[in-house]
């Protein structure tokens, strides 16, 4: 086992995460098959995979390329925000015209505070949340790089996140939990990214720790319904995301399934744009089904919607990439943004 497998199969793992998220958002997909709804509900953890791999990639980038904090944040903004605004602005206009958003929603969505103020018609939480994590990444990265014993730091971060989420749940600040649940996973991604650059070997102790995390996650999942109101499913993915991703990467390294990996890589490389469309246009199922929804269970509808979602996401990814790098060249930048 090597930690570098997470970098080698980063796009493929993001493709798996994208499938999981799309299934999770298909809330009324037919559940007549035994266990299907339980499997679909696990798609909540797809975002944890995105955030883990984002941490891995950014730690490797910061390790290998000299850049100021401003340069780091600028490149992140150029990669994320053009696609965000391309989807958010017309969708917010649609919600406003439909009476489901206020005029101030344009402001809150545009400055990425919609998630924090809880405005009517606020766009999905992910971009505002991930940009906040990016904002603190450079100083956190420098702190982690200066310490050799990082496992105790991860344990402290996880304990702090657990405490914060418990407080927020008890005080009914549910709309802030999506980010705080993912802080331990993001911190783990930064640490693993550093380990990859430092070529740290995967030890028997590492393997034992991952097994313990996986087993703890399974035990928690099986017993959380009897643990009261403050035992959220998100804690499952705090525990299992790293071992599951490493296990999947190890399997992909061993199994010669190239067509499958190519399809997953395609999804992963276009995942931001697919995600943005999935939580906006393709969340309007009541409207879209007026045009196409044959058969019970909505299976055919979701198959068609997923295919169109992916196609439009790919087209948006290409269009935004061309437009952004053309604009950067005009501004005199000789370092294109990788899309």
Notes on the structure:
The chain is mainly alpha-helical. It has one domain. The chain is built from 16 helices and no strands. Helix 2 packs across helix 13 and helix 5 packs across helix 16. The protein is globular, with a radius of gyration of 20 Å. The protein starts with a helix and ends in a 9-residue tail after the last helix.
Summarize the helices and strands and which ones pair or pack.
Layout: H1 5-8, H2 10-25, H3 36-41, H4 46-64, H5 69-97, H6 103-110, H7 114-117, H8 126-145, H9 151-170, H10 177-197, H11 204-223, H12 234-254, H13 258-269, H14 271-278, H15 285-288, H16 299-330
Main pleated sheet: none
The number of distinct helices, counting runs of at least 4 residues, comes to 16
**End-to-end C-alpha gap:** 29 Å
Total domain units? 1
Unreliable residue runs: none
